[in-house]
Protein 1
Amino acid sequence: MEFKTITYAKESSFLSPEENIAIIKLNRPEVSNALNKDMLGEIDTALEEIRRDEQARVVVLSAEGEKAFCAGIDPKEPSQQELEQRAEQLLKKIEEFDKPIIAAVAGEVSGPGVRLALACDMRVAAENAKFQNPSDAARRLAKMAGRPGAVDLLFSGRAVEAKEAENVGLVNKVVPTDELLTTVNWTAGKIASSAPLAIRLSKKCVNKSFEVDIVEGNKLELDAILQCARTEDLREGIRAVFEKRSPQFKGR
Amino acid sequence: MFLMPYKNISYNKDQNKAIIKLNRPEALNALNQETLSELGSALDEIRNDPEVKVVLITAEGQKAFSAGADLKEASSLDEAGVKELIELGQGVYRKIDDLPKPVLVAVNGIALGGGVEMSLAGDVRVASETAKLGSPEVNIGLIPGWGGTQRLPKILGKGKAAELILTGGVIDAKEAERVGLVDRVLSQDEFTSTVNRMASAIAAKPSTDRAELIQLIKSV
């Protein structure tokens, strides 16, 4: 598939020669990778392709260039409001996507770009990452701060640099800028090597944890465990523990 | 009050402190059905005991707090058995959660899967510097099923919780403290004495407010 505003590729990792990591790269560095109508459409198309691709187990969302991850919505777009709505639909799709999505964030992140990063399941940031006014992404932000006190800082309304973002839980990890993609490849490779059903259901249960109480949440977990219990992968996983070897999951 | 005899855990009272210890060190305190049931009974005793002002949950042995679900037992179960085991663990951990008394969990070594999930149901967590913690369920084709996917995101934040669960990674005590999985790390030789002092401090000033408890255990 040919894309104009993004690039799409697949990658293997040190854990497997299989190209099981799908990489979407925002590719409009000349405008700080701002989102326009075409780009939103192309990300959506790429995600649909990944959804159908059984080999692809995990997604990395990154951006071309080190200066900006995403500057939000392109101010040149004629209908800002319509684009805002389309962006929000895409973010929802990213959150609910049946494969985990890792954001690899370098440089400036602003406006809906912050929301884009936060919609992903986790974020690895380069040292030069800077989140402009993350409090714009209030609803998603509130879920990121586990530590008491972190919420206050996140909602202070000022820009948050990489190190601080790491301390409050806005990003998972900060690494030197030139190590960003190898670090993300490692994390993605690890996820891609686990049983796909367990990964999909884990993501779903974690997402739901902010919407349901513990009794309801426990029911979701039980349902997920019973689904896993019917897979060949779980039997293989348990055998591998007793035989002290790495499991060979087949995705069934 | 009469204390029930237990086989897989020990339950003792020291003045107003209730102390539960997982007691299968030879099996790395792996959680089988009997252990979970006994834990549930001890929690019922504690709930109804007006003397108890604080609960300390920890484990016997130097190596492990708990290696998680007893895989040998679990892998022998049919679907109905799996359902029963999951609901048993979920129910017992909700008892920890629902206890109207502060619960301090002292992670004295390895805590994996169901072991970590037990700690998450408590109000505050401390770990020995040699402890290693993780939710490695996906590595065998499972998900955390005893509340881990629900409690972890609220304690760590969604991103960190997703990372720990989806990568199945195991982290050391220092990293666990950095990400908020434990509230304080103690050196091995001062572990038991400090944990006891913490429990006494909480008993003297009982609260289930997490921020208050964290402050209290950091001052001991």
Note: Residues 17 and 54 of chain B are 5 Å apart (CA to CA).
Protein 2
Amino acid sequence: MKPEPSLSFFKVLKKSAVSFAATLPLLMGVILLVGMVQTLVSPQMIASLFGHGVLIDTVIGTAVGAVASGNPSIGYMVGGELLEQGISLFAITAFILSWVTLGLVGLPAEISVFGIRFTVVRNLLSLVFTFLISIATVMSVEALS
Amino acid sequence: MNLSDFKGIWFLLGVAVAYGVLWGFDPHSGLKALEKSGTIVWSLLPIFALVILITALVNYFLKPARFVKHFGADSGKKGWFLSLASGVLSHGPMYAWYPMLQEMRERGIRDGYLVAFLYARSIKIPLLPLMVEYFGWLFTIVLTFYILLGSWLQGVVSDRIGSKGP
């Protein structure tokens, strides 16, 4: 690949840094919100929401994962705790998937960067596919094991 | 840079007000939330640097015509592969990658590739051993397969719907 001849790499790097800096208020807002949610919503609180049957638990798993997004490793740990409590694997799979792919706290930033149409389409698709993938995964695992 | 060049000033102010309210009701939680946010910022610094570097590399090496060839409407299988692979390999939270994705979108990347990239990020290679530990090998392999398939399908559906934004 040949580089763009008109600008030096340093200038392109500087341009990228300036462009990144323009989004810093947005990123800081999201980070502060994530910090707040992580402080106010503990893993124990999340675990206490489950235990209402497969279908409702799967809906709860998706919703809670979307709201309380954070480090994926914490999502796996909460999922592991839920599994020990006997919560259905459908709900846990939906929870760990939506924990990473959906994010209500990041929604304002996503709308600001990509526009409302893209954000709505992407999040709706993620929501639907989180359900579908949870069902497909658990059914496949049960069939294979 | 003018103040108007910054994105999300009002959003940040709204969050600051929320912190003010939290501080008023529960100063201890307010302080704890701030400390947690500080820790997140600290952990994200290398990712921010990486995002700036990758954006610069893409802008430097890929002229608009070449960029569209790799990621535009007619880029086909190669574009899907690059989107899924880069999604799987990317670290950190989704929002850390928004600035880079915004630049790529302005240069003409297909929305479907962005959708596929963002969903494929749910596969975290460094955390796969942890997932195996909690849920077993079979579950991890099956879920990873369906995430990749689902990411691609979401991208295809997104392109069909036509989600082009601002």
Note: Chain B has a mean pLDDT of 86.
